[in-house]
Amino acid sequence: MGLRLRFNLILATCYLLCLGLSVVLFYQISRREAMEQLQSQIDLLRAQALSVRRYTSEEIQPLLADQSSLQFLPQTIPSFSAQTAFRNFRDFYPQFFYKEAALNPTNPADLAKDWERDIINRLRADPQLDKDVSIRTTDTGAHYTVTYPLVIKSASCLECHSTPEKAPPSMVALYGPKNGFGWKLNETIGAQIISVPMSVAESRIWRNLALFVGASAIVFLFLMALLNVMLNRYVISPVMRMAKTAEAVSMGDASVPEFEYAGSDEIASLSRSFNRMRRSLDSAMSMLDK
Ligand code: HEC
């Protein structure tokens, strides 16, 4: 195997090994960053939903309390307004998702689905958990989903959610006496579920990875080409010329000119030694001839 081939093979193997390792590392770091970005989107959406909730209970509810006792107005309920506002938000971002799901909801539309029920039960089983993070694959691709427990922290909630007798009659008239009752203080009755699509983050990870591999390949190919040129110029070509001279000398051809290689590198020192050896050989030969 020639020197050049050996060098190239060793370098290419090293490059591929390093590339593989750094691609894995790069992917993991990019993915972690993408997750952090998705989590900050979720934080933003949650803050938005909580703001709508607060606006409803602080501004709307007191205004419409009298009217709601005659004819119940769901618009005065924070959960209703937060979810309705988010439905409007989805006109702009249809892949984003927000739901206040409950195991026993007042509004049947808020009933937890299978997977939602599993998460709520997990949060109920461990009240220390402040959220549940999962990645779900749906028809529209993977979604980053964070679920926050909805815990009854205030006794005022139980005015409407303990028994139909305690609840405002106008509310029972609208929603019926069956659902959304029997909730207890400090009980996790449901969860705030927020999902954001991962497609943008994922395609960004792959694009960055492709850029990284492409850029490193260009640098590697350039360095390989440079190394080959230098190897050829400073090592292979002088060694081949020296070999040719040595071959001619060994065949008894004394007419070949001295090997010339200027410089102060190892090849130059080798060529000087070679020429010295040749001169000694020549004089030894001429002494023999006498
Ligand atoms: C005035 C009565 C009333 C009070 C007080 C009240 N709620 Fe509700 N709550 C409702 C009604 C009615 C709905 C259904 C709204 C709809 O149609 O989406 C509801 C819905 C909910 C939902 C969504 C799931 C479901 O049952 O449909 C959650 C969660 C919730 N309430 C939590 C609370 C919490 C927590 C409190 C206390 C801070 C509270 N509620 C206080 C009447 C009330």
TrEMBL record:
This is Signal protein. Residues 233-286 form the HAMP domain. Pfam families: HAMP, Tll0287-like. The chain crosses the membrane at residues 6-27, 209-231. GO terms for cellular component: membrane. GO terms for biological process: signal transduction. It comes from Alsobacter soli. Keywords: Membrane, Transmembrane, Transmembrane helix. It comes from the Bacteria. The lineage of its organism: Bacteria, Pseudomonadati, Pseudomonadota, Alphaproteobacteria, Hyphomicrobiales.
